[in-house]
Amino acid sequence: MTLLRDEDLTAAFDHAARGYDTLVAANPGYHAHLRRSVRRLGLPGSGAGLRLLDLGCGTGASTAALRAVLPAARITAVDASAGMLRRAATKPWAGGVTFVRAPAERLAEAGVTGPFDAVFAAYLLRNVSDPDAVLTAVRDLLVPGGRLGVHEYTLSGRRVDRAVWSVVCRGLVQPAASALGDGGLYRHLWRSVVEFDTVDRFAARVRAAGFEHVRALPLPGWQTGITHTFVARRAESGR
């Protein structure tokens, strides 16, 4: 199959929204790993006075991670899928969280403007048609010195990690998703990861977009070598 992009991918996420939380709950450490990635941003205290952008929020798992770690921050949570956002809206949120429907490539058209103190993007950038353009736009939304956190499937480059990813997807994830009628999206999931950047290549992509102090940090458990947190900062003086 070819990778899903743009409207086709959004439609697939719309359809999958009803069962999405059930599937991710079966992934050991999914929510704890998101919270770990948020903590790695190194933002101060409870987030009081900070403005955060949750880019590609889906049903709100990454939003919940931001809220858990930084409960006093103001969060703008954005996703292109109306179905995913409807699921997110059914959950209990304290004040300070705003959901906006917009593709990552067209934030300004939806009224999403900076400056933000930090941008967090979970499982997003391998799904966009032009990740370099999105990273550049994100950089421009940040205050000088603002933080970027990317939580993403990025293989280490070792054959064993690619093999583990394929076994998990084909043996566990895809059969469960197919039973829900969402096999196409999760076949895309497998392929989008094996065709995306390795961890070193993605770190270089982030640097090329004008970020400094780029670090790639592994996550524990079965996802070691498969999922990483990338943390970086916009240059204090801009690019």
TrEMBL record:
Keywords: Methyltransferase, Transferase. This is Class I SAM-dependent methyltransferase. Its EC number is 2.1.1.-. InterPro entries: SAM-dependent_MTases_sf (IPR029063). GO terms for biological process: methylation. The keyword Ribonucleoprotein does not apply. Signal peptide: none annotated. SUPFAM superfamilies: S-adenosyl-L-methionine-dependent methyltransferases. One of its GO terms (molecular function) is methyltransferase activity.
